[in-house]
Amino acid sequence: MKINCSRTGIGTFFAVMLLLAEPVMASVVMLNTRVIYPADAASKTVQLTNNDNIPYVMQMWVDINNPASTPENADGPFVTVPALFRIEPNAGQSVRLIFTGSGLPQDRESIFYLNSAQIPPKNVANNAENQMLVVLRNRLKVFYRPKGIVGGPEDIASQLRFSLKQQGAQWILTVSNDSGYYASFIHAAAMVGNTPVLFKADMVAPKSQASWVSEKRASSAAGAQKIKFTLINDYGGHTQAEARLN
């Protein structure tokens, strides 16, 4: 299979290949773990590095919430500059992310996804016309952050409320996020004394709630009075906190 490196050719190729490509550990990686995009920013820079000994063609685009998106149907209100480029072996590349939208809520964050697709040079496929090239794709969360949000991101933990109820043999933990920020959990446990009852934690949107089910074979959460949890902060680090159950 040949790749036409024009913008149209790349887009047609992606329409087929990206449906087959799963997020993997690519050799070209984005150094950011997430992008915080302040509403008053002219742009934000994303750094990439090629850890391989061969060059790659890279294409980047933003979608709203479509893991199967392609450059041709990208619907995110951002452009990347450049959007299509070659990255040399063991080298870096800076890409500017520019907001082009309007009409987003001003009292809470909005989330989008930055995609990077890594296309190998055709000689990696031994120039075989009928050999399928593997496109590697990764996705990065982009948080659009208005100035009108009350409080700072460091206050997220204090604006979370938790309630617990039993449902059959399992326990349901409901999290209410009263802040204007996304709360990105990597861990949540109801504490029965010193024994944790773990839940399948995930991200909770601002001014909304989510319910999680206790993990399989979890012990009873009866008598739990507090929740211990870990959040991902703006820098990709971990912030540990705890809260009393309502």
UniProtKB/TrEMBL annotation:
It comes from the Bacteria. The keyword Glycoprotein does not apply. Residues 28-149 form the Pili assembly chaperone N-terminal domain. It is found in: Periplasm. One of its GO terms (biological process) is cell wall organization. It holds the Pfam family PapD_C. SUPFAM superfamilies: PapD-like, Periplasmic chaperone C-domain. Keywords: Chaperone, Periplasm, Signal. The keyword Chaperone applies. One of its GO terms (cellular component) is outer membrane-bounded periplasmic space. Its main location: periplasm. Belongs to the periplasmic pilus chaperone family. PANTHER family: FIMBRIAL CHAPERONE YADV-RELATED (PTHR30251:SF2), PILUS ASSEMBLY CHAPERONE (PTHR30251). This is Chaperone protein fimC. It comes from Budvicia aquatica. The lineage of its organism: Bacteria, Pseudomonadati, Pseudomonadota, Gammaproteobacteria, Enterobacterales. The gene is fimC_3.
